[in-house]
Amino acid sequence: MQSHVGAALHSGDITKPEMDEIVIQFSAYYGFAKGEALSEVVEKAWAERPAALAQA
Question: What does pTM read for this prediction?
Answer without folding.
Answer: 0.81
